[in-house]
Design brief:
heterodimer, A: alpha/beta, abc type-2 transporter like fold, 2 domains, 4-stranded mixed beta sheet, 14 helices, about 5% strand, elongated, B: alpha/beta, Rossmann fold, Alpha-Beta Plaits, 6-stranded mixed beta sheet, 4-stranded antiparallel beta sheet, 10 helices, globular, transmembrane (chain A)
Chain lengths: ~375, ~300
């Protein structure tokens, strides 16, 4: 052996960091696509929620309130014409009463000449209120019609959103935010804990590779996975069964999504720095992502939680990611809607990423 | 095995020079004044029981830890703090199998190789060197313990480093896998690499190493060629015969016999001049089942520490 460097040794002494970056990124992607458990939690698990919620709320509003009808007359005909009512014709008031008592129908209406009888089950207050209001409205209209006068006041009621707006429009961006947070937080945390435990980090420390190259390759994997998730979720939600309709500048969601991934990755790095075992890391990651998803309106509508909790959720990146995605994907807003979420997400990433870099450890 | 040149009079280009290093973890003195030099092309072993300070010594030499005091020159440069220019010239195999998840043997090597900018041809060469060519497409997780250790060594060698550090490469391997690995290590040395390795198998070190340092409690107790350490012990050679091959009284009368002991199975004659004893036994035609046992590094350890060696 000689101390004179051969040309090969010289190239070995200065490996291009892009080669290392690409090789580490490739290793990361291969590790991702070959791990069935990771694939499940990245795609199928959130998809299950999308399917369940989508089917659960998908047809809401399309079908009206069911009411039993007995007899004939203008009120019964009006109820039969109404879109808000799903009438079930019954032979006698006795049979109808039996069904309402058994809970098969929330109420029944009987017209016998000029007498309208409404009987409802008080056990379901919401339905009872709905039915009372509905039938009262129909009876009033029939009364006005009977006077032969034109109505003086007219009511024009319509929803403010696009006619196509269905729950899937809200569900898709929310569940996607949640899914991306799972893959980025868990991905970063588990990788660093696992690499520390298996001494991969130590081995990398003894190779001529910069920490930023290693970190950057993991980040690229996380961003790539997030884009894949976007494609898959939007693709599935646009199937006719679910019927997602994207608004004009939906693609603006992609840069926002990448920023969101950055901030989730920073959270994962922080978790990975503190936890010693994979079990601990996934526990902590769950403890962060699940409450964050509920409080940020990703899984539940924000109005479902108290105002003070809504205010608390402003510290979560998911809240801003979710709002921004809703704006550009379904509320038909433009690039202006991205500004605030983008600034918040970048700021969050900078702060948490800096803390994570400070507490980062190579060794167990 | 090639005897390294200049083992004693160290040339200034010594690939590894460790002098007076100390490192304490709290009250525990893990390394307590260790000095040694490794010559170019030398196979140097750091031996001792678990907790002797071998791994910590190796970690300081590699530049993974900073010693409390003392200094290290690795290929003429200080390895601490992290020295990016030095790293391509050293190869390291760690105690844990440091591999990426879900990659095949070949992909592991390609990934590590890319960190050093090596080509695919080199990857094939290293796979062949460690005898894993037919396992190239096998996922790392499906390799046997011995194959995984060989892959780990391949990852340490992929960039053709000048000096290789191996931390207990043969630990937890079955005897056959250990012997396969010895062949790999000899082949690596034959290619002119300087090897520094730790083990708690004294018998293995005796076979493989040009020179060993025996450590206990953070210190080096003795350092020399294994044969010289054993010879300097000046221990008796034991000649063992089947019981009944020779009456004990006759054995005591043989030339060179110092001591004779008998148990249920065998008769053991201790001697410091085995040659006349063995020729006397040959004349009597009592060589059947005869065994000759000389002292080993375990006897050296016993002599140095006053206790039996337990890995």
């Amino acid at each position: 052996m000689t101390l004179i460097e051969t040309p090969r040794e010289r190239t070995a002494a200065r490996p291009a960091s892009s080669t290392a970056f690409l090789a580490l990124s490739k290793a990361g992607f291969l590790g991702f696509v070959r791990d069935k458990a990771t694939l499940f939690f990245t795609f199928l698990f959130p998809m299950m929620f999308l399917v369940i919620f989508g089917l659960l709320f998908g047809n809401e509003g399309a079908s009206g309130t069911s009411i039993g009808i007995v007899g004939d007359g203008p009120v019964i005909s009006a109820l039969e014409r109404s879109e808000a009512v799903e009438p079930t014709r019954l032979d006698s008031a006795e049979a109808a009463r039996e069904q309402v008592r058994d809970g098969d129908l929330p109420a029944y209406v009987e017209q016998n000449g000029d007498t309208i009888t409404l009987r409802f089950a008080a056990s379901d207050r919401t339905q009872a209120g709905l039915v009372n209001g509905l039938v009262a409205g129909v009876v009033n209209q029939a009364n006005i019609a009977a006077t032969g006068q034109a109505p003086r006041f007219t009511l024009d009621a319509a929803q403010v959103e696009d006619e196509s707006l269905k729950p899937i429009q809200y569900l898709t961006p929310g569940i996607m935010s949640w899914a991306i947070s799972i893959s980025a937080v868990f991905g970063a945390a588990l990788t660093f804990v696992n690499w520390r435990k298996k001494q991969v980090l130590r081995r990398l420390r003894l190779a001529p590779v910069r920490p930023m190259t290693v970190l950057g390759s993991r980040l690229l994997v996380a961003l790539g996975v997030a884009v894949l998730q976007f494609i898959v979720f939007v693709g599935v939600a646009m199937l006719p069964v679910f019927g997602l309709r994207l608004s004009g500048q939906w693609w603006l969601a992609i840069p926002l999504l990448l920023l969101g991934t950055l901030s989730f990755f920073a959270i994962g790095m922080l978790v990975g720095a503190f936890c010693k075992t994979e079990e601990a890391a996934s526990g902590v990651a769950n403890l962060i992502t699940l409450p964050m998803a509920f409080l940020s309106g990703a899984l539940l509508p924000l109005d479902a939680i108290p105002q003070w909790l809504q205010n608390v959720s402003l510290v979560f990146p998911m809240r801003h990611l979710n709002e921004g995605m809703l704006d550009v994907m379904v509320r038909d807003q433009g690039i202006g809607a991205l500004l605030l979420p983008a600034v918040v997400l970048l700021g969050f990433t900078a702060v948490v990423g800096l803390i994570a870099a400070r507490v980062f450890r190579w060794e167990a | 095995m090639a005897q390294p040149a200049n083992v004693r009079g160290m040339p200034p280009t010594s690939p590894l020079s460790v002098s007076g290093i100390h490192l304490s973890y709290g009250d525990v003195r893990a390394v307590d004044g260790v000095s040694f030099d490794v010559a170019e092309g030398e196979f140097f072993g750091i031996l001792g029981p678990n907790g002797a300070g071998k791994t910590t010594t190796l970690e300081i030499a590699e530049g993974l830890r900073e010693p409390d005091s003392g200094s290290v020159r690795l290929l003429g440069e200080p390895p601490w703090p992290r020295n990016l220019a030095l790293l391509p010239r050293i190869g390291v195999q760690l105690q844990a199998s440091a591999f990426f998840d879900k990659l095949t043997a070949r992909e592991q090597l390609e990934t590590f190789g890319a960190l050093y900018g090596v080509t695919a041809a080199r990857v094939d060469e290293v796979l062949e060197l460690v005898g894993l060519t037919d396992k190239a497409a096998t996922p790392e997780a499906k390799l046997s313990g011995g194959q995984r250790q060989r892959l780990s060594i391949a990852c340490a060698l992929v960039h053709d480093p000048d000096i290789v550090f191996l931390d207990e490469p043969t630990a937890a391997l079955d005897p056959q896998a250990r012997r396969n690995l010895w062949d790999v290590l000899r082949e690596v040395q034959a290619r002119g690499k300087t090897i520094v390795y730790t083990t708690h198998y004294l018998d293995e070190a005796e076979i493989l190493c040009d020179r060993v340092a025996i450590m206990d409690d953070g210190r080096i107790l003795a350092m020399d060629a294994p044969a010289r350490l054993v010879r300097d012990l000046d221990a008796a050679t034991r000649v063992i015969l089947e019981r009944g091959a020779l009456p004990a009284e006759q054995a005591r009368a043989l030339p060179g016999a110092d001591q004779v002991a008998e148990d249920e199975l065998s008769l053991t004659i201790s001697t410091r001049s085995p040659a006349p004893l063995l020729s006397a036994l040959a004349e009597r035609g009592t060589l059947d089942g005869l065994q000759v046992r000389t002292a080993t590094l375990e006897d050296v350890f016993l002599e140095l520490t006053g206790r039996e060696y337990r890995a």
